[in-house]
């Protein structure tokens, strides 16, 4: 959807520039008319043959099993990624509902969970965290902080923690990015990472920023090293950081307080020894 939107905007800019200098081109003669493409239309179709998928063939996980992982029209293999994402989303959603129970914040936590899953997939495929997903998360987290905290779950956080969390989340990674660029001349991460971290700060407060970034950085470093050692991946090839931030943020959403309390207790016991 974003790529089509960008293509349309690029065509419009080219036509305007060519019009300014008096040039004529195919772009001016034939304005691009992209068909509607959003979450509603067109209906889902097979990537191989383009055949429309019926409602019965589009039941999460079940349809994949009944179709034996193949398109009903052309027999092309259907990627296992579809049922994996569907099943994973169901499991994570069930965990959120089990953890928070029957309170209004459960609905908000589900929205955050689903958005983090989508951002993870997009970042893995395109190394992109779209503004039209990360920025609404920031604003939604700030707005939720205006509601009264639910004592049983300790969420949403208060406005002060949320605002500081959003600002500190963005500026911390922004600072790391520019420091790394000054030292190495390379870009270590994208601006989408700053915005996602800001969103997590808005939802969970500044107190959770350090646990989130430590979990994300540790996991990313371990997986990155394994990919270099085991799969021989070029160390200069960038690895998307968004999935690690999203996973760490989701864990902090459900068990952040418990993790921090356990660490402080362990650190206190260790220092006494």
What is this structure's SSE topology?
Blueprint lengths: L1 H19 L5 H4 L32 H5 L14 H20 L3 H23 L4 H14 L14 H26 L6 H14 L4 H23 L10 H31 L1
What does this structure look like?
The protein has 273 residues and is mainly alpha-helical. It has 2 domains: 2-66, no CATH class; 81-272, no CATH class. Helices cover 66% and strands 0% of the residues. The chain is built from 10 helices and no strands. The protein has helices spanning 2-20, 26-29, 62-66, 81-100, 104-126, 131-144, 159-184, 191-204, 209-231, 242-272. The longest helix is centred in the last third of the chain and has 31 residues, at 242-272. The relative contact order is 0.08. The mean pLDDT is 88.
Task: Kindly list the characteristics that best describe this protein.
globular, 273 residues, mainly alpha
Question: Total domains, how many?
Answer: 2
Secondary-structure-derived class: mainly alpha
Helix content: 55-70%
| Radius of gyration, taken over Cα atoms and rounded to an integer in Å | 23 Å
Q: Count the helices. How many? A: 10
Provide the β-strand percentage band: under 5%
Shape: globular
Largest beta sheet, briefly?
none
Could you give the count of β-strands?
0
Question: Can I get a quick summary?
Answer:
This protein has 273 residues and is mostly helical. 66% of the residues lie in helices and 0% in strands. It folds into 2 domains: 2-66, no CATH class; 81-272, no CATH class.
């Amino acid at each position: 959807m974003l790529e089509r939107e960008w293509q349309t905007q690029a065509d419009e800019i080219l036509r305007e520039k060519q019009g300014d200098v008096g040039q004529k081109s195919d772009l001016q003669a034939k304005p691009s008319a992209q068909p509607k493409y959003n979450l509603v239309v067109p209906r889902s179709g097979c990537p191989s043959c383009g055949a429309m998928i019926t409602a019965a063939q589009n039941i999460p996980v079940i349809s994949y099993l009944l179709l034996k992982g193949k398109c009903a029209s052309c027999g092309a293999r259907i990627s296992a990624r579809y049922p994996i994402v569907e099943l994973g989303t169901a499991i994570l959603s069930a965990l959120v509902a089990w953890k928070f129970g029957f309170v209004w914040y459960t609905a908000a936590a589900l929205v955050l969970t689903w958005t983090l899953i989508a951002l993870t997939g997009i970042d893995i495929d395109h190394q992109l965290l779209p503004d039209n997903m990360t920025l609404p998360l920031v604003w939604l987290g700030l707005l939720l902080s205006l509601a009264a905290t639910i004592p049983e779950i300790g969420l949403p956080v208060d406005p002060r923690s949320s605002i500081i969390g959003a600002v500190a989340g963005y500026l911390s990674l922004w600072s790391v990015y520019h420091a790394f660029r000054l030292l190495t001349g390379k870009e270590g991460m994208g601006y989408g990472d700053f915005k996602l971290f800001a969103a997590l700060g808005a939802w969970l407060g500044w107190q959770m920023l350090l646990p989130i970034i430590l979990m994300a950085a540790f996991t990313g470093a371990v997986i990155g090293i394994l990919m270099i050692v085991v799969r021989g991946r070029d160390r200069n090839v960038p690895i998307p950081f968004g999935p690690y931030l999203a996973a760490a943020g989701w864990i902090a959403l459900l068990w952040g307080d418990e993790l921090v309390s356990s660490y402080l207790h362990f650190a206190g016991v260790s220092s006494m020894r």
